[in-house]
Amino acid sequence: MRRIETVTVVGMGALGTLYGRTLQKTLGIDKVCFLMDEERLARALRHPVLVNGKEEAFRRIGPKDAAPADLILVAVKGPGLLSAMETMAPAVGPETIIISALNGVTSEELLGSRFGKEHVIPCVAQGMDATFFDYRLRFQKHGQLCLGLFEEEDGPAAAPARVIPAAGQAPAAASMRDKLEAVAELFERTGVPYVIEKDIRHRMYSKWMLNCGLNQACMVFETTYGGVVEEGSLPMAIFYAAMREAMLIANAEGAKITEEDLSDYAALTKSLTPDSMPSMAQDRKNKKASEVDLFAGTVLRLAKKHGIEVPVNAWLRQQVLEIESQYSARDF
Prior knowledge:
The protein is an alpha/beta fold and 332 residues long.
């Protein structure tokens, strides 16, 4: 597996800008680009990007200027994934690796269906407190990207992929383990915080459980990380109740989430900058469509499949949809 040298970031919000900036510091602005559709590009080019109050330069391009990348980091919001896949298509080559920083537990499947599952390394982004408003990124905690392979993909490393082929002989295809190791080597080289998970499915469902409580409660109650963990408050009660419903669903799906996992994520939330907020709360301020279908929507769909009652997530979804119904069409 060759070394990753070029990165395309799809989605210039909090996570895309946060990690794209880190990669760019080592690889250089000529090796990292932000790819967006022409409408977003025209809008973005009118605005400088500020990171913690300081203007920084980024290379922003449209699909017509895209070329196959060694790595694509997908960091759009859930509602924008389908259109983003069309935008990023010119950047996907035969050896391109794709990682998704999207919330929820469905983006890897969608990306694999569109581009081939052999391109997609499962990924979970967690622990950051980044906010992004009007092309202004603010953060204190960088968080980390959790990488791994699904059990059915995690075979032995393909040693022939590292062997120089004989003249006229094509190199063996890199295994999924080779590709995972290439991404890890890139992150080591560029300082992107990461961890290799033994059970990435467990991590994905654990983080999804957190977001079912955290993102939705913060949006509905229009509060921050600090507000949702205030002892004795209604937001905190809903935060925990929604997570416990999601935990039931995750276990029914075979992810084996425990109360210890729930407690660990509650502690993580308490460690974040108290006056910062998760993405759905930012969506409410920006009057943008949220990822409620990735959270309560998925809970309700899987609850029906397994015959589980989930009244808290049903209530949260109703509240979010009522909030979004008050936005005007131009807000989207």
